[in-house]
Structures are given as C-alpha cells and as structure tokens.
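Tokens in:
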C-alpha cells in the first residue's frame, strides 16, 4: 500500500486497489475528474457524490474495507446507513498525517481472515511456495498488483525445466486475467545472468502489462533474499544463508504487519529504481531503431520482432 497519498480519496484508493477508471465508470463521470479529485486539484464537496463513493468502496471490498474504515474513523455502530454517512463526511475533508498511520493501524488490527504462516525449505520448497501464490492470484476476481524481487541465485527456478515452463505459463495467465506484474531487477548479477533472465521473460514482457525496474547501484547492498508480494494480500519471502540452496528458507504469510512493512519496502525500492525494459509497438519502435542506428551508438543489442512488436535490449558500455 502506498503511503504518500495527497487526499483521503487517494489513500482509500491505495488501500482498496480501486482504479480511477472503475470509479469514473461507477459514477458516470470523466476519468480526468476522478484524477483531479485524487490529486486534490478539485475538492470533493458534493454530498451525493460522496455518498456514491461510499457505496462504490463498500461494494468493492465490503468485508475488509468496512472493518478497516470503522477502525479508522472510530465508528462503533454496525448500522450501514450510519457508516455510509460517517465515511462520506470523512472522505470530504482534507488528508491529515494521522490518516495514514490510522490506515496502517487499522489494517493491522482489522480481523479480516485467519493469519497464514507457512514455512518451506530448499529449492523444492521455494517452488511449492511460488505455485501457492500463483493459485492464489489466479483465483482472484479483482485485478491486483504482483511484485517480484530477488537477488538470490535462480537455481530453484531453472533446475526443474517443467517448473520453469509452469512459471512462465502461470505469469501469462495472470496477465491475461487483468492483473499487473511489477519486477525489480538487481545489477549485482553478471550481465550474462541478467540477460538470460530477461530473455526468459520476453513472452511475458510482450504482453505489455508488466513493469520492469532496475535498482540503482547505491541501493544494491541488500542481503540475499527473495520477496514476492501480492499487494495488500500476501507475502512470500525467502533467504539463503551462506549462499547454499540446501539452506534456502521460504515463508508465506498474510500477516497484516508483514504486508504493511513489505509494501513500504517495495515503494522505497521503486523510488530508487529506474525503468529497465519497455515494449514498444509498431512504427514508434521502428522510428526509435532508426534514431539509434543513425547516431551510431556503441551498444550491443538483441532484437525480436513478433506480431508487429519490435523488442530491443541495449547493453550499456559500462557493463561487462
């Protein structure tokens, strides 16, 4: 969950994962108007609109949302109309510093679902945990964001060819269902290892709904770890002591404090990353290629063209 919100509307959108497009469709307004409400460039004052927003968010994630907001605004009454009016009144006021800490506290205290804590050992255990996450995501009806980061060796993935195929097919299914994947790469790997990983991801990148980031060099000094994160829902974290895959340890949990901490960790990593890969279609890609070749840049590249999609990787001079 992002914590650098500008308005209470943006804060609630971050908590629920609701998009501006979904809100605009529900209210029958232009999405640009929702963007202005979200940023604070236009104030939400119309009570009818505020009540409709209360209806939207309640329907969007009724159990988790209402319990979280009741804790945040201190509402003890279980009467829905009282909740609707109280939330509408709260939503129409400016964001305060207490709101963000209140949301985090409410998420931690909210009695949503039973806490899961599962542990796995070794490469096979890591694969089992990954498959559990995939099944969890593919069973979700609403679009979510799935975050991936690892600076461990990838033997747990590559030593089983069948699992590697399942991994790729599962990620493609996740994208087809409308979910979003955000992956953060680290340059502590050799260029050959990084490029091999990127090449394995080509079919997924070409789907166009994946963000790829490269962690900046001054933020590379992290312990050997893997963190997979279904936004606001579940964390899969793993560690490999002494760089020995036999000791690889993996934990799956939906603990609220862990989720809040990992959300903040990912936001910090993205804030300190730069875009790594982009898929560009059609004439724009060919035009960019012409520009690169005309200036004679000293780069090595690998190119792919499929279904009018032109995909290029560039190797900067300073990488070996």
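Residues out:
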């Amino acid at each position: 969950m992002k914590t650098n919100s500008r308005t209470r509307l943006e804060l609630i959108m971050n908590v629920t994962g609701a998009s501006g497009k979904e809100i605009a469709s529900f209210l029958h307004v232009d999405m640009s108007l929702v963007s202005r409400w979200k940023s604070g460039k236009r104030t939400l004052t119309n009570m009818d609109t505020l009540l409709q927003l209360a209806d939207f968010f309640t329907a969007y994630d009724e159990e988790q949302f209402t319990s979280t907001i009741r804790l945040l605004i201190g509402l003890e009454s279980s009467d829905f109309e009282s909740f609707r009016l109280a939330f509408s009144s709260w939503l129409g006021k400016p964001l305060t510093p207490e709101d963000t800490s209140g949301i985090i506290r409410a998420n931690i205290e909210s009695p949503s679902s039973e806490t899961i804590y599962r542990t796995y050992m070794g490469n096979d255990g890591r694969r089992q945990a990954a498959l559990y996450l995939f099944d969890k995501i593919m069973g979700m009806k609403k679009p979510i964001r799935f975050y991936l980061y690892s600076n461990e060796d990838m033997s747990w993935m590559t030593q089983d060819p069948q699992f590697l195929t399942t991994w790729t097919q599962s990620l493609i299914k996740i994208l087809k269902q409308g979910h979003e994947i955000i992956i953060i790469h680290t340059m502590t790997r050799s260029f050959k290892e990084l490029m091999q990983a990127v090449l394995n991801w080509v079919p997924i990148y070409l789907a166009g709904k994946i963000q790829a980031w490269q962690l900046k060099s001054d933020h590379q000094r992290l312990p050997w770890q893997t963190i997979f994160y279904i936004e606001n829902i579940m964390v899969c974290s793993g560690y490999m002591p002494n760089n020995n895959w036999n000791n690889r340890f993996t934990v799956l949990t939906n603990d609220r404090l862990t989720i809040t901490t990992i959300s903040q960790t990912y936001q910090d990593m993205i804030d300190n990353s730069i875009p790594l890969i982009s898929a560009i279609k059609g004439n724009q890609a060919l035009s960019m290629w012409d520009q690169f070749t005309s200036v004679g840049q000293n780069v090595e590249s690998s190119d792919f063209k499929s279904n009018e999609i032109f995909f290029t990787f560039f190797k900067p001079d300073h990488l070996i």
